[in-house]
């Protein structure tokens, strides 16, 4: 696929993810942010213009900016927290972190408000993230400078998911489809865990999956998840296109 077509596809896919997460109720007002590196680059990424509803995002109104914060295509402004968080994470590993999704999605964010702050291995969906979740217990307020962005990127420690105390989650992937698929299943895993915790009564406890079994299940999922993720996003885009194809504009 020619470079121009790859960039166009990245724009469509990222716009679709904004729309899908809006329909799923996993965003928050005009806040939170999703970015993707432009294919073939390591320092240019696509992001929402601050002030847009996620239901208003289209392939063409995504903003293209570089790691210095210069807007190369589209109209700003870009939210400062979006720029500082995403620039730092993309730069930390442009291959593994080609797509970075930051949300305050309710169930996973609820786990960020617990002590201990932990995704427990209680369900098949949980095992997908076995030993691939980092925890940042330092909440320092809004991310408004490069130093805090770099600290958060460092807190990821090479993992794909970060739980940030009193804040929300960051989910990363080598493709837009991979990051979307992971974020979707992370929220479902958090939902099951919270439901199970809420059902606990006297003399009961969470039934934890052993580390050995969790590792086996993760390996099984890792073997196929790139293909599954692509199929999942394609299916979601088909449904979205039937309801409102304007995300492709």
From TrEMBL:
PANTHER family assigned: ADDUCIN, CLASS II ALDOLASE_ADDUCIN N-TERMINAL DOMAIN-CONTAINING PROTEIN
Gene Ontology MF: a single term: actin filament binding
Coiled coil regions in record: none
Residue stretches making up the Class II aldolase/adducin N-terminal domain: 12-194
GO cellular component, one term: cytoskeleton
SUPFAM superfamilies: AraD/HMP-PK domain-like (SSF53639)
Originating organism: Diacronema lutheri (Unicellular marine alga)
Pfam families: Aldolase_II
Name of this protein: Class II aldolase/adducin N-terminal domain-containing protein
InterPro entries: Aldolase-II_Adducin_sf (IPR051017), Aldolase_II/adducin_N (IPR001303), Aldolase_II/adducin_N_sf (IPR036409)
